[in-house]
Structures are given as C-alpha cells and as structure tokens.
Write a structure and sequence with these properties.
Number of strands: 13
Distance between the termini: 47 Å
Strand content: 25-35%
Shape: elongated
Helix content: 10-25%
Radius of gyration: 26 Å
Low-confidence stretches: 238-286
C-alpha cells in the first residue's frame, strides 16, 4: 500500500479508505480500552488522530509509542466521533520506526520559546511554527519560479564565494580552509593566503548583481540568491511561546524590536515597478 500524507487524509472522498500513514507522535492519551495518538508528518499543521482498540493491541505494543517517537500505521479512515477533528484512523497494524525517551525528549506537550528552539535546531522543523514557515517558503519559491518561467525568464545561480567586496559592504562572512588558531604568516606577519584553497582571501558574497549582468547577454534572467546582507548581527528573537500540542500555534506573543520589520521590504521587492514594463503584475484590487 502506498503511503498517504496526512494532508491528503482531509481531501474529499477519503473517508472509508484504507490508509498508510507515517509520522511523529505529538501526544498520546487513553485508557485500558482505547488509546488515542496525535500523529503529524509535517505535510500540514493539522495532526491526525490514530485510534488503537486495545483488543487488537497489547500494552507492550504501545509502550514505545511516546511523544517524539516515529511510527507507521495502517488502518481505516473514518469520520471522527469526537470534537476537534473531522476524521480519524482506526489502526489495524503498528510499526515503530524509532523511540523517544519521554524523560529527555525536549518537545513535550507545552509551550517552547523561540530562543529555546535555537538550542535544538535539529528538532525545530517538527514544531507547528517552523513547519508552517518551511511550507510557506516552499510555496513562495515555487510561485516565483513559476511566474518568471512562464514569461520566458531563465533562472541563474550566481557564485556564493567571492574574492571581492562587491558592493563595499565591509563586514562579510569569511571562507577559509586555514587553521584559524594558527594560520601561516608571511615575513611581515600577515596571514599568508597563498596556502588557502583559493590562494587569496575569500568570503560569502553579498551580491549576485555582477554575475547576473554578465549572464544576461540579451537574455531575460532572474536571480534569487541566498546571500548574507550588509551587517553581521545576531537579532534578538520575538518573545513568543510555541504551542506544539495537536492543534497548537503561537500564543502570548510580543515583540522586542519593531513590528513586522521584514514584511515591507519583501513587498517592496515584489512590487510591479521592479519588473520590466512588459512583465508587470496587475495591481490588486484593495
């Protein structure tokens, strides 16, 4: 049986079908007769409730099913009799891919600050907020590519490493293979970059404009580089708490610095006047 993504379970016509779902356990509750597990696979912010009839499963079968464990369930998708979800999976088989120690697994059924999640970056994509950000960024990137590709533009990947200061940004992220603690030095005591990988000082570029202009040569190009810009600074995060329970989100949110500080820049970049006249985007009706 082919795997079914959780986001597809909520599509019309799925009720009554046999499904094969995989994901990470968000929560587990129940009694000696029935157990309920909230399962999420990252395809949607919504989790699906898995119902385990304890006449079909033993306590030993479900003992490793704790918050954070990865499981594989086959069963029947039915309309839910409870509140909070439209459908649920009546489990028929269970396979545990990986366990998680409930005493040490950090993403428990409670709120987590963004600062705390920085310390467990490998688990952040499992949270509601970071999962939503990844999906939104994916949709935006696809829409940008689709827009330009349909209008005859070519996508250009510009170099990420450069030996020039491009726009005179000053502070740049240096790239080197030399031993930072004990770099080779010349007779004047300066770092000898001739022994480096590129034979000269290099850094992450702050602009793809030069290569974009060279690559154009009569073509319509668009460049969407991931480049560090201008200042090397570590911004303090918004003070918010992530609620990563089955139907969670972000709550108790307040900002330390400004309000929506990056949004106006994105909107400015995407405004129609930044495109060639013949490729302008119609102004939306407000």
């Amino acid at each position: 049986m082919k795997r079914t993504k959780i986001t597809d379970l909520y599509s019309p016509g799925m009720i009554g079908k046999e499904v094969d779902v995989m994901g990470w356990v968000r929560t587990r509750r129940g009694n000696k007769h029935v157990q309920f597990v909230a399962l999420n696979d990252g395809s949607t912010i919504r989790s699906v409730q898995i119902v385990f009839d304890m006449t079909l499963f033993s306590d030993d079968d479900l003992r490793p099913v704790t918050t954070g464990s990865a499981i594989h369930v086959k069963g029947l998708l039915v309309e839910s009799q409870g509140r909070g979800q439209s459908c649920e999976v009546q489990a028929q088989t269970l396979e545990v891919f990986g366990t998680a120690d409930p005493a040490t697994y950090p993403l428990q059924k409670k709120g987590h600050s963004l600062e705390f999640l920085r310390e467990i970056a490998h688990l952040r994509p499992r949270t509601n907020t970071f999962g939503a950000v990844l999906r939104i960024r994916s949709a935006l990137a696809f829409a940008i590519h689709k827009f330009f590709q349909e209008r005859g533009f070519y996508y250009l990947n510009t170099p990420l490493i450069t030996a020039s200061d491009c726009e005179g940004a000053g502070a740049m992220f240096q790239v080197t293979t030399l031993d930072i603690a004990n770099p080779p030095r010349d007779e004047e005591g300066r770092v000898d970059y001739s022994a480096d990988f590129f034979g000269k000082p290099t850094a992450l570029t702050v602009s793809g404009q030069l290569e974009g202009e060279l690559g154009a040569s009569g073509r319509d190009l668009y460049v969407r580089p991931h480049l560090p810009r201008r200042k090397l600074q570590h911004s303090a995060p918004s003070v918010g708490v992530l609620d990563d329970r089955a139907g969670g989100g972000v709550h108790r949110h307040r900002r330390q610095h400004g309000s929506g500080r990056g949004l106006h820049k994105i909107l400015h970049i995407l405004r129609p006047r930044t495109l060639p006249r013949r490729h302008r985007v119609p102004e939306p009706d407000v």
